[in-house]
Amino acid sequence: MSQSVVKINVLTVPPEMRETLEARFAGRAGMVEQADGFEWFELLRPVEGIDTYLVYTRWRSEEDFEKWQSSQAFGAGHGQSGSAGGPPTGHGGNASASGPATTGAELWSFQVVEQAAPASG
Ligand code: HEM
């Protein structure tokens, strides 16, 4: 029985910063893949009628997500060189980047109630 949780970080991105944001994600730390309990990640680009990017992540449990969020890997993936436990700076960019690509971020949390995948064979 799945008890997975979905954590979606909702990023407000001005149109002129879209390219910068996507480039930053293209160069992301890639450390989330190593996190215990990590199940899925997607960066979702808005198409029409919506102006927010979604960073979709899925975790085995709430505890696994929280551990990752207070880990050094999270800091590294968010442009911080500092120690574990610090909150995100709110910009996500690395030190050499020219400021934040986002003007806002909001975390949405969900429990996975039902799921389906293509039947194989
Ligand atoms: C103030 C809040 C946040 C902002 C503005 C933000 C923005 C960003 C940006 C711009 C990147 C690209 C990498 C970089 O520029 O260093 C990134 C990486 C990432 N973010 Fe966030 N983020 C925030 C918090 C969160 C939270 C709460 C989650 C959980 C859903 C999350 C999930 C991820 C993941 C999975 C990556 C890829 C990390 C990796 O490759 O290891 N972010 N974020």
Question: Could you explain how this protein is built, in words?
Answer:
This protein is of the alpha+beta class and about 120 residues long. It has three helices and four strands. It has a four-stranded antiparallel sheet. Bound molecules: protoporphyrin IX containing FE. Protoporphyrin IX containing FE (HEM) binds near residues 7, 28, 55, 94 and 102.
What order do the helices and strands come in, and which of them pair?
Elements: E1 5-12, H1 18-26, E2 38-44, E3 52-59, H2 62-69, H3 72-77, E4 104-111
Antiparallel strand pairs: 1-3, 1-4, 2-3
Order of strands, widest sheet: 2-3-1-4
Strand composition percent? 25-35%
Give the fraction of residues assigned to helices.
Answer: 10-25%
Derived from helix and strand composition plus strand pairing, the structural class reads alpha+beta
What's the number of extended β-strand segments? 4
Write a concise synopsis of the structure shown:
This protein is of the alpha+beta class and 121 residues long.
For the structure shown, list the relevant keywords.
121 residues; four-stranded antiparallel β-sheet; globular; binds protoporphyrin IX containing FE
